[in-house]
């Protein structure tokens, strides 16, 4: 689905990613951890093309589609949730209200709310960011620090959600400095000094 092959990313000679290599299979649920500043967000930006990698390559299958939440999701601040999500969906697809609604219900957001995004808390924005990464049935899902701002119940709902996505055969990669309990990862990596290494546990 996704092959990341000796990916490198430097900024003005500073090598942030020296070697990131991994392959995603359908249903993989992958954790990439490492401390603040180790390059987790940079790795996702290089995979999605927000940054042009300075070495190596990423190959995505022809039918595969990436859904990503990277750092702070940007929204149309004066518009409500439905307008924001339908705007994002319509860039490529139809907006599937009912399907999107299932994710909103699971995470405790109201898709029919008229509240503008500028009034949303960090946790609510984070949920909206997670939903846009999955609402178009994207099958390669990259979530960067997804638990930020989520309360205890929302963390449980989030873990259930990603476990279910993997069961559907979609691949999920979560980059986070911390652990979210209840996620059934099948692969663990650590990003340290620019090198991505697989752990056994
Ligand atoms: N656009 C950029 N220009 C220069 N340096 C950058 C840029 N983006 C990220 N970096 C640097 O890359 C390093 C890793 O950052 P980041 O990927 O945000 O780490 P993490 O997400 O693991 O906390 C940091 O030292 C950061 O300053
Ligand atoms: Mg980051």
UniProtKB/TrEMBL annotation:
Identify the keywords attached in UniProt to this record, alphabetized.
Answer: ATP-binding, Nucleotide-binding, Transport
Q: Which residues form the ABC transporter domain?
A: 2-201
For this protein, the record's SMART domains field holds: AAA (SM00382)
Q: Which InterPro entries match?
A: AAA+_ATPase, ABC_transporter-like_ATP-bd, ABC_Transporter_VariousFunc, P-loop_NTPase
- Kindly indicate whether the keyword NADP belongs to this entry: no
GO molecular-function term, one example from the UniProt record: ATP binding
Does the keyword section mention Nucleotide-binding?
A: yes
The chain's coiled-coil residues are: none
Under what name is this protein listed?
ABC transporter ATP-binding protein
């Amino acid at each position: 689905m996704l092959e990341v092959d000796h990916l490198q990313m430097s900024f003005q000679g500073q090598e942030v990613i020296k070697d990131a290599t991994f392959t995603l299979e359908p249903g993989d649920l992958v954790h990439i951890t490492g401390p603040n500043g180790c390059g987790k967000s940079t790795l996702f930006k290089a995979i999605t093309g927000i940054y042009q990698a300075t070495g190596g390559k990423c190959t995505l299958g022809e039918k595969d589609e990436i859904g990503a939440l990277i750092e702070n999701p940007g929204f149309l601040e004066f518009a409500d949730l439905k307008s924001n999500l339908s705007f994002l969906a319509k860039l490529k697809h139809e907006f599937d209200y009912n399907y999107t609604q299932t994710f909103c219900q699971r995470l405790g957001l109201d898709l029919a709310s008229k509240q503008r995004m500028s009034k949303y808390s960090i946790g609510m924005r984070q949920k909206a960011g997670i939903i846009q990464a999955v609402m178009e049935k994207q099958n390669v899902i990259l979530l960067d620090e997804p638990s930020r701002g989520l309360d205890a119940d929302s963390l449980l709902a989030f873990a259930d959600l990603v476990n279910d996505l993997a069961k559907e055969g979609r691949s999920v990669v979560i980059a986070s400095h911390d652990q979210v309990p209840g996620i059934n990862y099948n692969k663990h990596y650590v990003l340290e000094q620019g090198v991505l290494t697989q752990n056994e546990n």
